[in-house]
Amino acid sequence: MWFILIGLLLLLMKWFAFGPVADWSWWLVLTPFFLALLWFEVIEPFFGLDKRKVHDEVEKVKQERIRKQLERTPRR
Hints:
Layout: H1 2-15, H2 26-47, H3 49-72
Helix pairs in contact: 1-2
């Protein structure tokens, strides 16, 4: 996410010819977007970081359902 935000900032600075970024090459300005693509499409899936987030969310929903069910059942 940080790569995309930095990329947007550099892109706007290049587009409006602001500061030293105006003199930079387009390749240098677009580098954060290439890094974000590399991160989201190669590194996260390779290390299973994207699946871990999904499994954690599913587990949280499952635990919440169990907790609600236990609260509704009468005690004997």
